[in-house]
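Re: weekly structure request thread

Next one in the queue (394 aa):
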Amino acid sequence: MDSYSFDFTTFFDRRGQDADSVDHVSGVLEGYDIIPMWIADMSFETAPSVIEAVRSRLDKPHFGYFSPRAEWYDAIIGWHKARNGIEYDKSSICYVNSVLGGMVTCYDAFTRPGEPVLTHNPRYTGYATIDGSGRHTVYTDLIRDENGVWRMDFEDIESQIKKQHIRVFALCSAHNPTGRVWEKGELEQLVDICRRNGVIIVCDEIWSDIIIGNNKHTPILSVKGAEDITVAFYSTTKTFSLAGVKGAYAVIPDPDLRSRFLSTAGRTMLNQMSIFYMYSTIGAYSQSGQAWTDQLLKVLTENIGIAYDRLTAHEGIVCSKPQGTYLLYPQTSEWEKRHGVSHEELVRRGIERGVIWIDGDGFGTKGTLRLNVAVPTHKLIEAMDRLDEFAFIE
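Done, posted below.
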């Protein structure tokens, strides 16, 4: 795979090309270009193998009803075996239109309206779909240890499960927004708690390909005891910046859980695969796509290191170094207090200079920001220079 070479240095202009990251931005002063570091897609062109696969299908001018090709299943199975050493059975793979939509299907299948669903805090804002589905969210806080690493509070998890009569736990792995990659031992503890208490784990592994440095992702379904209590979700959307090409899939090894899931999903007829999603996935999960991902991870690892060092150089900013995702989640409240700057003012200063970061309060922790560093390294450095000169000042 070393023979492949890809472009992660060109900063291409996406304005007017159906890109929310640049088309829905305001408040930037004249003279500053936009460096999008808010919404979680990348400022890189997708893998050439994706374009080639979709183009090859476009050359065949008929787009009627179809069934998923064997190559789609084979690509998924091969990808997970190569990346994480786990081999999924074809029968366990189920198409869904999106990870969040699939998770809502789980809430509908495994809980009743009004019942609680447990998840971590901080949390991805998209998990508001728990309440949107007619359930209500119960949170268990992640806690930073003495080394600044976000950790699960297993005592609180079990307490909440018993007190709130929890039947579903929604897990994000790797975790958005903290960037935490769960260790195998942590997942084993979580699975043990959920098994003993009759809880189904609904695991969002959309970030599982974006693992930084020498960290290692452990698929939840590789943990002993997880197979018959877990639904795991995956998608190419984060890894290959394909959020505009809707599509994802669930892996559900247990026949009973799978039957209940598919029965619920089938009531709406919404989970109908697009032929372009199918071919984009086949292209993404190819040998060339694997090489592209490996090179991407080298760039993201460098970018994470640069952004982390630049942010934490400002006394009063607390930030855990992400182990996965391309997101940083710094706590800026102490810096703001020391310098007499409001959180709103700090956010505004960055945006005015074209650094489009996002207020992190909506992810569950006050006085935080979330930054997406999936931009060419030279633009990341430019963004950090702008923040040093115009944002992190008294």
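The chain has a mean pLDDT of 96. The first strand starts at residue 35 and ends at 36.
Next request, please.
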